Each structure stands twice: as structure tokens, then as C-alpha cells.
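User: We ran a pulldown and think these components assemble together. Before we commit to crystallization trials, I'd like a predicted model of the whole complex to look at. Sequences follow.
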Amino acid sequence: MDFDWMKVPYALLTLFIVFNFGLLQTALIQKIAARVGRRHGIPVWQNYIDLIKNYGQRSSITHGVMFYLGPVFRLSGGVGLLLFVPSLYGSEMFSNFSFAGDLILALYFVFFGTLGMALGAGESGHPHAAIGVSRGLAQVTAAELPFALAVFSVALQYQTLSVTEIVAAQQGGFLNWTVFTNPLAVTAAMLSFLGSMMRPPFDVVLAPQEIPIGPPTEYHSSYLALMQTNRAIFPVAKIVIYMNLFFGGATIWPEFFLKVFCIYLWSAFVGVVFPRFRVEQSIRWFLIWAVPIGVLSILIL
Amino acid sequence: MVNALFIIAAALAAAFLLGLLKEQWRGAAYAVTLVALGFMTWISADWAWAFAMNGAAPVDIFTAGTEPPFAINLRMGRPEAVLTLIVNLTGLLSALAMKDALLALGRRAMAVLLVATMAFCGIILTRDIFNLFVFFELAAISTAGLILLSDDDRALSAGFKYLIVSQVISVFLLIGIIFAYHATGTLNIDGMADAAQALLPGGMQAFALAFFLMFMALVAELKPFPANGWALDIYESAHPAYSAIFSAAAGTASLYAVDKLLLIGGAAWLPAATGIGIVTFVGANLLALPQTKDRRLLGYSSVAQIGLILAVLGQRDVLGDLTSFIALGLLVAHSVAKAGLYWLSGLIAGRELTAWAALRGHPLMVFAFATFLCLLVGLPPFPGFYAKWELARVLAAEGRLALLAAILFGALVEAGYLFRWFGHAIKRDKPAEEISCAPFSVAAVCIAVVAGWALGLLWGEMAGFLFGRSNLLLALPLLFALAFLLLDFLPAWLKNTLAIAGLAGFFALTWTEYDPLRLIFAIIFTLGGAIVLLASFSAHGRRIGFYPAAMLMYAGMVMLIRATDTFDFFAAWELLTVGSYFLILRGKHSEPHALSYLVFSLGGAFLILMGFALAAGSGVSPRLTFDIASLSQLAQPVAPWVFLLLAIGFMTKTAAIGLHIWLPGAHAEAETDVSPMVSGILLKAGLYGLFVLLMSMGKQQLYGVELTTLMLWIGALTALLGNLMAIFQEDAKRLLAYSSIGQMGYALFGLALMNHLGWLMALMFVINHYIYKSMLFLAVGGVAKRTGTRAMYQMGGLITLMPLSFIAVLIGIIAMSGVPPLSGFGGRWIFYNAILDTDQRLPMIILFFSGPIAFLYLFRLIHTIFLGQLKDEHRKLKEAPFWVVVPQMIYVVLLLAFAVVPGIALRRVDEYMNQFFPEGGLDWSGLLITSNYGYWNPVAIMIIVGCIFMTLFGWLLFVNRRAQKVKQFNIVFAAERPYRPETTHFAWNFFAPYRKALGFLVQPFATRFWDAVTGSLHAAADFTRRFYTGNGQTYAIQLVGFVVVVFLLARGI
Amino acid sequence: MIAYLAMATGFLLILIGFYGALTNRNLLRMIVAFTIADSGVNLVIVAVGYMRGRTAPILDATVPAADAAARIIDPVPQALVLTAIVIGVGVTALMLAYAYRLYEKKRSLDIAKFMDLKW
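Assistant: Here's a predicted model for the assembly, 1473 residues in total across the polymer chains.
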């Protein structure tokens, strides 16, 4: 196989851009959320400070091999997800490693990090970690369903599973975006989106009051730093898929930043308004409100 | 050849001679008896040999030097020779089996035994109707005499009840005879038959009444349900060796008498025989369900079997020349099995079914028991199997489906209670009293076993002669499996080596003969089986019974993929079913589960039989054998029904929802190395069946419903509910078992999509499921072996103690969940591409939902066992046994290889499928796999993921090189130390919220439904059998009532 | 006429016998009832073989062998009756023996007392 080695530095460049954008964006969103609650909030560079602090911490323990590998899995999942999807449409430079697989690869690779992380947390032996994982897995089964339906609907609509081709089909004016050509699918997907962003009302996985921060309870210092890095990259990587499937993708970085931020803001917007659901409540909510819309989007296509 | 009259003469002479002996010379008397019986047996055998080998002509024996109708004549023909052989042999062996009783009672008892045997032979030989009556009376008197041999006090009352009934019978018979004589002017059966044809209508009516009385009298001798309470009492209380005669010899003689009588009655009376027969077969089998006493159970079964044969005789009009092949097949199977079982029961002290657990520890006797049961149920390679097949074929061809269904239902019920009994024998507590080892009785049992297998061989030859089939018993795989019966004395490791060599060798010999699809299955069945068998090296001792059962299963599977015609296919199907049943039954607590497996599997098999029979009878290819490939030529309206029957049959094996309830217990309770065999390998037999079915029949519509669409829904629901049920299991192996149900749902779904990629997806699941489920079952089994429990919440933290098992489980769950870069992803990718090609969108949604649910149980599996808190009692555990780990590591390698280069297995099959679906295949150029919709490059994915992972890992190692390992309880626990691992390990009821949200979906509806079915059958049977009050008078009234009812019904018809 | 009378009597006896055997609970009475039924059967058989105006099938001086076929009644039913009687005696004897043993066992002749085996 002849591999274009230039793809590697380009991919690293994407990674670098997204990493910094992600750090700033999460901080900004947090600040917005704080302001809604009439609090002052953190400075936008707070994430950089935390990251440097965590990498600098000297005390470090391990509970075993899986515990050690957990954050590695987690971050590999985030990075991989980002790199298996083209970031900018029409740009050879930022098409990343999308030659390796199509949309389905991205969808299933989401679970790579989650699973590894859950295993690492499990080995810590902390019950809160296990409780968090149990809640997270239970919730994700229902939350992912509308998204899967939406993806299927979109794939049927465009008769392809290739992300690039889906974006290509949406070019030529914003009315060609899936959100306008297939609004039901996008509605279902955006409801599902709420469930995967770890924000209220679907943040029972981390539930700071009952099971302090859930699965990552035992993680600290450089482990935590790795996971924080992922926390900056992963949401963006995920939103990129949404952007590509439903909102016409992006051809230049400013468009990319704007669209990603707006989509992210949607979850923050809902999050500051609603209180937290218990697991079974959120499962029911997704099955009752989001799934039928997704089903409808498939049936009337 | 000796004149057949000497059978009668020898018995009488010996009986007289016995009278001359001194009372004390019991040994001598016994010797005389045996010699006489032996001589009689020899005469019959000699004749039978002459008829079979030299084609001798039937011989009529004229008594009193005159020809009929002026004197009685006897006939020795082909059927007579065989039947008297059965009778005489039963008599001889029973004499062996009841040696003690005979010696205790002396020469009179022996004389009575001789007279009884002679009377039964007489019934068979005579061609004179009144002579028939005389022999029947002789039989009745001697029976009443022999009943007294029993040391059971209750036999006395049974004998009296019998005498009452036989009085009633003889009145009917005599009246019938005299009026029949009056009408026809002869007592000779053949003469009467001829004369009856020539009767005028007026005379005909009178004659019909006379015939009816004779017919009912002889039928009553067959103990028809429900007029048979007296016979059941005899079966239960008589000496078991006499019950053997009563069941085998008396049944044989009476059946032949009825057969002769039907010669007179002609076709008009055949429906009556069928009706009585089938009612008896079904009724007696149902009433046998609640029995707990062995001999009474056997009595019910005898009654049922004789009823079945009567029904077959009644089908003479359509069976034609096959009647004797079928009836004789059923008869010899019944006689040998029933006699053998009664002799066996004579060795056992207790009368409860559970008392047969005494057989355990006597492999030969267990083998005998199993042989008799298989003979009785009609499993291959025994005569009953051939008979069942031909019977089904003809009945379906003639459109007598209700009768066929009733026969199969009765047979299923019979198999149910017989194998439940076998389960008791293998699994229940061994009673204090050992079995008696009286050499003569044991010899009788052993001869019956040999006879059973010899008959299997003989019927195979006959089927070859009649239908051009190859002899099942001589099929190489089956012979190989049976050879392990003889080798069972060898140590387990040696047998294991042989078994592995056999499987691998067979593959090496035959692999060029398969098409690409079959090759995949062949690899899984043979090489896959060999890999799983590696784990069996961890077993110690001799492991009696394991290898014959396992190899029988493998033989069945190999024969299945090699079968080209429906008969071979069905035979292989039953072989693998029965082999796996014996295998599953070996689990410690698997008694009820093995039974439910067998009943479901046989039920499914009977549906398959019906389907094949319907297909063969549809006239597409009017031949005796029906190729599987000919299924494609079937037309409306038969085709969809055939499809439906076959599909349900195969789906029973793949545990489609509703038919799944046998699987969890059967797979979970099986031994460590058996679970992967029955899950990883055996389930694929069902999928293979579905592949074959869909390849040959394609889409079928029934009342406008597309049947493959129905399968699509079933597949989707199975996937969802299987997965859902898996997440609520506390038992690791049960979790895996439910997961198999879900996985089979996926495969079924893929097949039912009826497009190129759907089938490829199903095949991907076949391969993947074999690898990871075998691996996971072995890993979990190894852990369970070490921890002594299968409850996951009792484990925890085993990762450091059992790292290899952990790795296997880790790889297994990543693969099964479909996360890239392992091979499960390929399955999901093909799935998404496949569903884009179909119009059925709703079932997809269910499948979308079930996908992520797999994560729940998979995480639970690995977390609760290997992660979390290590328990104090497990701190010193070792890694699973070496030989259990070896195959797991092989699977890890296989899984990784299959993940990187799926093309090695799939590419050729992909091409092969072009002949069914030319559209929608994959493109395999280079390393990239492309479909119409998307693309996928497994190698690139593996490399990219690997690089990212290794880079980040290196980075973490660099920044975190000083990390130190801390102790178990060193966690952030509100500044306290946890109290105990048990309370800190969050494991039990892991997904409680999920149950709250969706628990209503996993209510055990199917279990409740099947429980209700079996429960109501049992309750109905238990209620109905109270009708046998035990009062001899009531029994006589029932008999009279039975005659009246049949009379009214016959008039009505 | 006489044949019909005999036959009707025979059937009546059979019915009486059956009625007696199926309603009397005493073993001995049942046996007696069966004997009555047996007699009825024998009577019926003989009646069937009867031919008006013919003589017994005994070949002696009065019935020469030459014209026997035209003068004697059918000998077969009579032969059958003889056999049936013999057998009937045997069965009755056996039943009586049984009744005796049963009585010894339970000190009762009531058939309803011997219901240990059932269902």
C-alpha cells in the first residue's frame, strides 16, 4: 500500500488546532453556564492551567495495568475519532485518515475510549467508578438510539455511508443542509446529542453530589491530564460528525469553529435550564420523545 | 429346515417331560426348559435365515393329513419366521432373566412358560380362526399362571383382573367366530377372506357384525386405550421378565393376529384400526407423563407402541408394500427395547424412576439403557428411525397430515418422558441398594443391546436394498464416534488425542469436496471442534461417556454438511441432537435443562421431518430419495408450508425467541469444555440449516405474508430480548448463553435480509461467534473452575491472578461489542451496508437498540469478574488450567488475524454468493473493502489505532514513570477504608435502573407459556389416569363400553 | 324355530352373565356369572350349527358315510363347543384358584378390595 506520509503531520496539525479550540471552548461554555447561574465562572485559560498542574503533579499511584491503560484508551478514542473523520470538506490537508473507513467506523470507534476508560476505572476498585459506569452504559443504550436512527435515515437519504460524500451532497447553499432536507432525523439526532454531552439533565453518570465525578474518581495527576486532554478533543470530534451529517460540514476553519460552538451551545443551553434525570427517567425520556421522531424520519423517507 | 410344527411340539413335549421330572431336580428342569426354548428359537431363526438369504417359499403345514377347510393348517412364511423368532427369543432370554424365580417355583412354572411361548407362536403360525381362539385362550391361561411368578403381592389381583377381561374377550371372539363361520362356511382365515368377498349384501351385513366382534376381541388383546387398565396392572406387578414377554411376545403375536384378521375384513376396516391405534398411541403416551413407577411407565409405553403399529397396519391402503418394512421396523425396535428395559428393571431394587440412578457406575448398563431408549424413540441408526421416515414420507404424500402430526406429537411426548427418566438415572442421588448382577439377567440385557445394534445394521442394509440409501451405521463419522464406546476404557488424554486427530484428519481428507460456504462450516465443525477439544486435556481419569457423546455430535454435524438428500440430512440432524443431549446431560445440575433441550430439539426435528415429508410428497421428484436441492422446485401451495416447517425446525436449534428457553440452562450448566462446543459450534448447525433452506427455497409467501420478513422480525426481536436478558444475569455462563441467543438473532436477521451482504453478515457472525463465544466460555469456565462459583458478584479483582483469562475475555468482549479495530466491527459494518439494501426498515430499529445493550452485559462480565475488589478467599487462586488457556490463546490469535484480514475467510464466499445475489457484493481490491455505500480498510484501522495508542501510552509512561502500585483498599473513600471487599465490590444487580426502565420486556413470557403447556398436559394426564380405578369390574365395563363406542363410531362412518 | 329359540336363550344367558359379572362385586358370583355367559355362548354356537331335520354328526350304522353329508348337521360347531367347554372349564378353574388365593390374602371376596394397582 502506498501511504502518503504527509498525512501524518497534517493530522497532527488538525489535532493541535482542535485541542486548543477544545480547551478554550469548554472553558467558555462553562463560563456561560456559570453566568446563567449568576456566578462569575472560570477564566477561559483555566483549562491550560489545570492541564499544566496535573502534568506537574509528583505523587502518582496505580491500581494495576488496566487502570494505567484506561486514560490511554480514552484519549486514543478521542484522537482516533477525530482523525477518522475529515475535518474540513474539500481540503486534502484536513481530510485526516478518513480513507480507513466510513461513517460506521466513526460511530463504533466512539465506544473504544468509553470501554477502555470504563475498564480502567473498574480496576481501581472504587464502587463509585463502577456505579458511574453502570449508569453511563445504561443511559447510552437509549441515548444513542435516536442518533443511530438519524444516521441510518441520512445514509438512506444520500445512499452512501461515506462522510465526505454526505457533506458533498449538502453543498450549494444552506437549504441543502440535512437539517432542512431531513428535519426529523436532525431533531432526533440533536435530542440524542443532549444525552452524550454529560450535561444536565443527563449527567447522572458523573453526578458530583452522589458519586463524586463517577468513573474517573480514582484518576489523578497525569492520568487526569490525559483525560482532560480528551475532554477537550472528544466533544469536538463528536460534534464534527454532527456537523458533517446534518449541518453541511465546514470548508474553512472559522466556519468549523462557529458550527461546532453552536452545536455545543445547544447542550449547554438545555443543561442550564433543566435539572438532572435519574437513569431510568432518561431512558424513558429518550425512548418516548426522541426515538419515535427517529423512527418517523426513517419511515417517511 | 425343520418343520415349524416342531416349535409347538417341542414346547409341549418339554412341558410333559417336566411333569415327569422330580420336583427337586430343579436345575435339570431349568436345563430342559432352556433347551426347549433354544430349540424353538433355532427353528425360527433357521427359517428366517432361509427366507432372507435363500429366498425360500412359504410352507403350509397341514394337520390331520387334510387340507383346509377340513383341518387346521399352519403357515411358516417370511413374517411368521421373523415374528416367531421374536417371540421365541424373548421367551428364551426371559427364561434366563427370571432364572431365580423359575428355580424357586419349580417345574410347573417352567412348563407354563413353555406353554405361553408356544401359544404366542401358535397365534402367529395358525391360519385357522378357531385355532387362533384356542391359542389365545392358552396364552391367557398361561399368562395368568406366569403372573404369579412375581414376588409382588399385587400381581394376584392383576391376574384376576386379566382373567375377567379375557372372559369378556373370549365371549366376543366366540360369538364372532361362529357367525363368521355361519356366513362363510369356513374357519380358515384365507378361505374366509375369499368367501367374504363373494358375499351378497344381506349376508355381508351379518358378516360385518360378526367380523366386528372378532376384530374387537383381537384388538382388545392389543390393550387399546382406554380399555387397558388390566394390562397396565400386569405390566406393573408381574415379574419383569414376564412383563417383557407380555410386552414383546404377546404384543407381537396379537398384532399379527389382527393383521391376519384385517385380511378378512378388507379395506373397510383399516380406518378403524388406524383410529384405535392412533388414539392409543397418543392417549397412552400422554397418560405416561405423570408416572413415577418404572414398570408402569413401561407399560404405558408398550401400549402406545403397539397402538402405533396398529395405526401403521391401518394405513396399509397407502403404505402398500412398505407396510411390513415400517411395521416390522417399529415392532422389532419396540420388542427389543421394551424387553431389554424390563429385564434391566429386574436388576434394579427400587420401583421409582429415580431408583434407576443405581445404574450409575455401571457404564455398560447405562449404555444399554441409552440404547433401548434410542431404539424406542426411533433415533438413527435404529430401525424405528427408518420406519418413521418412510411413514412420514408416505403419509405426507397421501395428505394424511393430521395422522402424521398426531404420531409425531405422541412420539415427542414419549421421548420427553423416556429421556426425563434417563436424566433421573444419570443425575439423581444413587440409591443405597446396588443393582443385582445376576449373570443370566445381565446376559439377557446384553444380548438385547447387541440385538438392537444388529437390527440397526440390518435395517440400514434393507433401506439400502429398498431405497438405494447408504447404511447410516456404516457412515465413517458415525463409526468413528461409536468406536469410542469400545475405547472408553482408555485414559481421557489418549482418547482426546484420538478425537482431535480424527477431526483434523477427517477435514484433511475431505476439505476439497466442499463449496466455499460449506467449507466455512466444515472448518468450524471439524478444526473448530479440535481446538475446543484441546481444553479437554485438562480432564483427568477416564471420563467415561464423554467421548462417545461428543464424537456423536461431531459426527452428526459432519454428516449434516455432507448430506445431499433429505434423508441423510435428517439422520445427521437427529444424530447431532442426541449426541449433544448426552453431552449436555453431563453437567452437574443440567438434568432439567438437558431434557428441555432434547424436547425442543426433537420437536424441531419432527417439524423438519414433516417439512421434508411434505416436500417429498409433493410430486416434484417422484423418487424415494429427495435431494435437498430439489426443494427449489417446489411450487405453491406446498412450498411455503415446507418452508415454514423447516424454518421453525431450524430456528428451534438457533434458539429464536419463544423457542429459546432451553438454551440458557443447557449451555450454562454444561461442563467447562462442553459449553463452547454446544454454543460455539452446535448452534451453527441451525444456521447451516437455515442457509441451506434459504439457498434452495428463497423467498416464500404464505397468505400474502412474506415469510422471510417474518424471520427478519423474529431475528430482530431475538437479538433484542436475548441481549436484554443477558444483562440481568448474575451467573457468568448464563450471561454468555443469553448473549448467544442475541447473537443468533443477529445472524438470523442477516439471513432473512435476503441480500448479498445480509448473508455475508450472517456468515461473519457464524465465524465470529464461534471464535469469541468459545473463547469466552472457556475463559469463564476456567475462572468458575478455580473460584468454585459462577455467580459473578462472588468474584472480582481476578485480573492479576488470572491475566491470560483476562486477556481472552478482554479481546472477546471488544470483538463481540463490535468496537474497531477487532473483527466484530466487520460484522457491524457489513450489517449497516446490508440494511441499506432492503426495504424492511422497522425491524432494523430494534436491532439498532439491541446493539449498544451488548455493551452492558459485556462490561459487566469483565468488570465483575476481573476488576473491582478481590475477595479474601480468592487471594491464592492460580491461573486457569493450562489446557483450558491454550485454546483461548489460539482464539486470541485467530480473532486478531480475522480482524486484520477478514478476506481470507470471506472473499471466496462473497464470490460464491454471487450465484444467489449477483448484486451488492463487496469489492476486495487491495486491502480496501468497498461496498455500494461505504468502504473499510481493516489493516489501516489496525495500524492507525495501534500507532495512536502506542504513542499515547509512551507519553503516559514518560510523564508517569514513577507511578507506584498501591494496595487494594487504598482508594478515595470519604477518607475511610472500605470495610470488606464484598461490600465494596459494586456487582450484584449491576443494572438495577435498567431493570426499572425496561424490565417489563424481559418478563419470562415464553417460559410461562411453555410451563403452562407442559403443566396442562401433565394435569390433564394426571386427571385422566384416575379413570383407571384399579377395580377389575370397572376395567371390564370399560372394555365393553369401548366396544360399544367403536361400534357406534364405525356405524357413523 | 327351535334354533332361534336356542339362539335367543343363548344371547339372553350371555347378557345375564355379563350383567351378573359386571354388577356383582363378589368374586365367586362373578365367576358363576361368567360360567353362565359361557353356557350362553355354547348354546349360541350349537344353535348356529343346527339344521332342521338332520341328525347328529356321528357316523355309525344309521348314518352311512356315503350319504352323511346330506343327513347330518354341520359337525364343526359341535366340535367348537366341545373345545370351548374344555377351555371354559380351565379358565373357570384358574379363576377359582385365583379367588381362593385372593381370599387368603385379604380375607375378602369383594373385588373392590383389590385396587392396590391403579392409575
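The longest helix of chain B spans residues 756-787. That may be worth checking against your pulldown data before setting up trials.

User: Thanks, that helps.
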